[in-house]
């Protein structure tokens, strides 16, 4: 893939290949041209990088997943980026169907090539999705599990993601979110509690590595980060 690079991430005691953008600045310049310079936090393709929250929640799920490994699940990842977490989920749950969703169609080639490298192409499907729109009818209340890592970049995400996730989930479905507790975290948590019941909240430490987005973070002097992992249950629709 032009303008991309291959990095390797340790997962389940193996180094797994993940393709990410080679130069975020160059990618952003091309993207800005495509959107006529209308770059906002609501639409900025941060997903071509690999953020620490996705790594942390994937690592945590190896030991703390709320489902048995052999259960046939319908899983939807919101804001999938390059598809790392979706690939990890497909590896952890060999009978699961994973829909990897993102607003940016330009991320589809990354998801597809990464799923192929992990041997999970048949169970990871990319779909372009806009949280501001209604949930597609065929997806409504069909998901056992909805996940997202580092998804609150803009106030519009706070408004639209929680009800969108709620409408995706079955009555007994679960929502798992990972977030590095940026300044929107408190507001996001309050809004999420209006839609869901908080079942579990854990804090995981993350050593910042030197690949993907970590190149950017290490240069700023950030060496460690704490990530919150939140698990919510669907509320009664009565």
Describe the structure.
The chain is of the alpha/beta class. It has one domain (4-234): Vaccinia Virus protein VP39 (Rossmann fold, 3-Layer(aba) Sandwich), CATH 3.40.50.150. Helix content is 32%, strand content 31%. It contains seven helices and nine strands. It has helices at residues 24-34, 52-64, 84-92, 108-118, 155-168, 185-195, 214-219, and strands spanning 4-11, 14-21, 74-78, 97-102, 124-128, 143-149, 169-179, 196-207, 224-234. The strands form two sheets. The protein has a seven-stranded mixed beta sheet, with helices on both faces. Strands 1-2 form a two-stranded antiparallel sheet. Helix 3 (84-92) links the parallel strand 3 (74-78) and strand 4. The chain is globular, with a radius of gyration of 17 Å. The termini are far apart.
Structural key phrases:
31% strand, seven-stranded mixed sheet, two-stranded antiparallel sheet, 238 residues, alpha/beta, Rossmann fold, 32% helix
List the helices and strands and how they pair.
Elements: E1 4-11, E2 14-21, H1 24-34, H2 52-64, E3 74-78, H3 84-92, E4 97-102, H4 108-118, E5 124-128, E6 143-149, H5 155-168, E7 169-179, H6 185-195, E8 196-207, H7 214-219, E9 224-234
Helix pairs in contact: 2-3, 3-4, 5-6
